[in-house]
């Protein structure tokens, strides 16, 4: 079959690129209407009694008694099987006092998930982490800081069709930090709100680095790389964890994320090119901090080994990383898993799939459970320590 492109000739790159762009958009809108739109109707799965008991830390007898005493705690029943929504599970947790509450006096964790390289698992990790935290009863906000808008796709939006420029973090960074409140969208996933990204963010990047454009804005809005930090002040108390899904770069948007965050997670697959890229990332970010004269402190900084194939070469690289970077490398890692890849292709995390005894599913889920458990334990320690400090001050 001859490519449709031959009719445009090969001499003029501009013409070829224009054609690719038009034809690519045709393909995308076709695919989008067929498949991705289905994601828009996406619902979070419901949980059977055994899962509800685990999640609420209460027995089935307790749940049955509760629904008898108060019909508002009654789950949907299909053929006698009880199906609990996450919203109902959280209400039961609240009633039973088993929902983790971030202690008064602690700040939310604002975590940037960042690396120079694309494809290392930033967005996949961010989505799974948001799901895990929300399933644990925490209040989560995800912000898309990458023009590719992968985060938007995960929540059922087609980044450049469903999301207008005004709905991204753009206006909070360019015009009015307090406008961030209006940008927050509820999602199909109870407990997760988002501010989705799309290609508009690329224009934001150009604007924020336009010296002439910004010179008059600094007085009103702060330095171009501090806009996100300023905006988050208006909403941060409404959440326990704010996740910043960064692009594969250290551009001004990523620097905004770095300045706004108090936790930084760098996903690194255990392979030489990824490790090399990680070193360049560290060097470049260090230079930026030095240049800006800022002292940045973090509550949490970890390298997360992702897409770990568990073969000999990758095990060797992991050993070296552990030896050199010590406890900054997370104990647990995310395995390379066909199941995670399949779920990502359908814009899902493993947490959204019906629980299964299948070996590949279990292996992928176990590795995620380990990683997010380790992260959540660290966050809880940070929160408890902050609350204790406040209590000490009061005494
Ligand atoms: N643990 C994993 N195992 C297998 N494939 C993965 C895993 N994590 C991510 N992927 C694959 O890699 C692709 C890129 O991941 P993504 O999270 O979008 O990278 P980034 O955000 O760093 O560019 C995903 O679409 C998915 O197919
Ligand atoms: Mg991404």
Detailed description of the structure:
The chain is α/β, with parallel strands linked by helices and 395 residues long. It contains 18 helices and ten strands. Strands 6-7-5-8-4-9-10 form a seven-stranded mixed sheet, with helices on both faces. Strands 1-3-2 form a three-stranded antiparallel sheet. A hairpin with a 5-residue loop joins strand 6 and strand 7. Adenosine-5'-diphosphate binds at residues 118-124, 150, 248, 306-307, 334, 336-337, 340-341, 344. Magnesium ion binds at residues 122-123, 146, 150, 245.
> How many structural domains?
3
CATH topology of the largest domain: Rossmann fold
Order of helices and strands: HEHHEEHEHEHHHHEEHHHHEHEHEHHH
User: Any low-confidence stretches, pLDDT <50, length ≥5?
Assistant: none
In this entry the ligands are: adenosine-5'-diphosphate, magnesium ion
Strand order of the largest sheet: 6-7-5-8-4-9-10
Look at the helices and sheets and give the structural class. alpha/beta
For CATH, the homologous superfamily of the largest domain is named as: P-loop containing nucleotide triphosphate hydrolases
The general outline is globular
What is the number of beta strands?
A: 10
Number of helices: 18
Strand content: 5-15%
What is the residue-mean pLDDT, rounded to a whole number? 91
In helices, the fraction of residues equals 40-55%
Q: What is the highest CATH level, the class of the largest domain? A: Alpha Beta
Distance between the termini: 79 Å
| Annotated CATH architecture of the largest domain | 3-Layer(aba) Sandwich
Biggest sheet record: 7 strands, mixed
Cα gyration radius (Å):
23 Å
């Amino acid at each position: 079959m001859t490519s449709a492109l031959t009719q445009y000739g090969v001499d003029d790159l501009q013409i070829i690129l224009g054609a690719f762009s038009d034809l690519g958009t045709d393909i995308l809108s076709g695919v989008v209407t067929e498949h991705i739109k289905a994601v828009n109707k996406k619902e979070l799965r419901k949980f059977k009694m055994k899962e509800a008991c685990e999640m609420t830390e209460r027995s089935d007898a307790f749940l049955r008694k509760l629904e008898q005493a108060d019909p508002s705690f009654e789950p949907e029943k299909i053929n006698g099987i009880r199906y609990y929504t996450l919203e109902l599970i959280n209400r039961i947790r609240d009633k039973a006092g088993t929902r983790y509450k971030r202690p008064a006096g602690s700040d939310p964790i604002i975590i940037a998930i960042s690396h120079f390289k694309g494809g290392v698992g930033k967005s996949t990790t961010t989505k799974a982490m948001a799901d895990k935290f929300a399933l644990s009863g925490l209040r989560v906000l995800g912000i898309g800081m990458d023009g590719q808008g992968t985060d938007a796709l995960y929540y059922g939006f087609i980044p450049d069709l469903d999301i207008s420029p005004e709905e991204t973090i753009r206006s909070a960074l360019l015009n009015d930090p307090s406008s961030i409140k209006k940008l927050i969208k509820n999602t199909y996933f109870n407990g997760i709100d988002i501010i989705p990204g799309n290609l508009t963010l690329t224009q934001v990047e150009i604007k924020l680095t336009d010296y002439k454009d910004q010179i008059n804005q600094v007085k009103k809005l702060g330095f171009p790389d501090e806009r996100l930090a300023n905006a988050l002040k208006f909403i941060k108390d409404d959440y326990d964890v704010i996740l910043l899904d960064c692009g594969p770069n250290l551009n001004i948007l990523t620097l905004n994320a770095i300045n706004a965050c108090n936790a930084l997670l760098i996903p690194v697959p255990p392979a030489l090119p990824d490790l090399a890229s990680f070193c360049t990332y560290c060097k470049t970010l260090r230079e930026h901090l030095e240049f800006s004269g800022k002292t940045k402190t973090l509550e949490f900084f970890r390298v997360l080994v992702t897409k770990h194939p568990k073969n000999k070469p990758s095990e060797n690289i992991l050993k070296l990383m552990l030896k050199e970077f010590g406890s900054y490398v997370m104990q647990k890692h995310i395995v390379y898993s066909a199941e995670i890849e399949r779920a990502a292709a359908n814009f899902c995390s493993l947490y959204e799939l019906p629980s299964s005894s299948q070996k590949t599913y279990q292996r992928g889920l176990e590795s995620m459970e380990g990683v997010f458990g380790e992260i959540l334990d660290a966050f809880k320690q940070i929160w408890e320590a902050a609350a204790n400090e406040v209590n000490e001050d009061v005494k």
